[in-house]
Amino acid sequence: MTDSLFDQEPGGSPLAVRMRPRTLDEFVGQRKAIAKGSPLHKLLQPTDVDTKSSVILWGPPGTGKTTLAQLIARAGSAKFMELSAINAGVKDVREVITAAQENKSLYGVSTVLFVDEVHRFNKTQQDALLPGVENGWVTLVAATTENPSFSVIAPLMSRSLLVTLSELDESEITNVITRAISDPRGLKGDVSISQEALEMLIRLAGGDARRSLTVLEAAAGVALGNGHTEISVDDISSASDHNVVRYDKDGDQHYDIISAYIKSIRGSDPDAALHYLARMLEAGEDPRFIARRLMISASEDIGLADNSMLQLAVSAAQTVALIGMPEARITLSQATIALSLAPKSNSAYLAIDRAIEDIRTGDIGIVPAHLRDSHYARAGDLGHGVGYSYPHNEASGVSEQTYLPDPLTQARYYQPTDRGQEAVLSQVWSKIRSILGRD
Predict the structure, then answer these.
(1) pTM score > 0.70 for this model?
(2) Which residue ranges form the domains of the chain, and what is each CATH number?
């Protein structure tokens, strides 16, 4: 259990602690969450009201959860107390609630209780928080990196506002870094940073402000230790124990490596695909971008040869969005290997392109009368729906009738391969074409 004082930060504290915003104006990121008029913005405004709504902050590491808790406490002139769900038990929770109750009843002082990693609390531990929240003894600010719908008990969820936080974008991380270099609380202008090193540090941060400051501080130490004041790419590499990959997210490397990655999957070489995946991840590429490309590959290169690969790719993308790095690397690896080893077919890709080509350049004709909408007055007088054969009335479930416009009756857009599951679909489509008279 920690009792935090806003204005007392020892000189030996880590840079990320020294640079923690003390006012809302200093806070970087979460523009939507703290927008004027939002519930969180109201909690962050100075007020004489001694009890505020409890809140659950859900987001990746380094997005400002602890800072927001402290700013909420400061806005209400409340006592700030902190518990880490990693090492706190039910006894610790009850002691904090009792102390908060006494502070309120004896001294009229409110308490903001910040619980970090609340998803690590079991049901009993979370239940112990309820009396303090229900009776207004504490304003609970709970932080979690996991979906609280699955990790926080319903009674606590119903008594709290849920605020979703997002990773900081590149401009916001740049703001955090440059301010830390010049600020008297930070590096005091003792060092500068090259543009290339700044770009590398932004990528390594991955939207995590705390990580950016941790690496920056270490890199500054490396630079000064080597007798120079400008932080270089090599300093970043040494400080992060990280072999910094030369990779421009907006340049040739970005496009070349993602191209090699997709072509390796298409070529059924999981080792090569994993190599390019690792290069992208080590260079700080957004894992969500990679996951999106896997979804495209699942349809473009595997398609109907194994329908399950699209489901796997979609699940992987959802998982990556939920858990983030570094764990997302495992999910991306799993999906990469599966897609690499799956049978390949581009028939769906070619089929839609053939159809689009006819639409753009060909005589596409009109919708056959028997297929037109007949669900309105006098449609039958126009011949709409007349002669339509209902497939469910046929023993085979297929009616011998024309579906394509007259100029395209012999068009063959879908041309199945004999690979994987599509071999079965090929036989089915051949029989259907025979019934339709399209052989």
Answers:
(1) no
(2) 2-164 (3.40.50.300), 170-240 (1.10.8.60), 252-341 (1.20.272.10), 360-435 (1.10.3710.10)
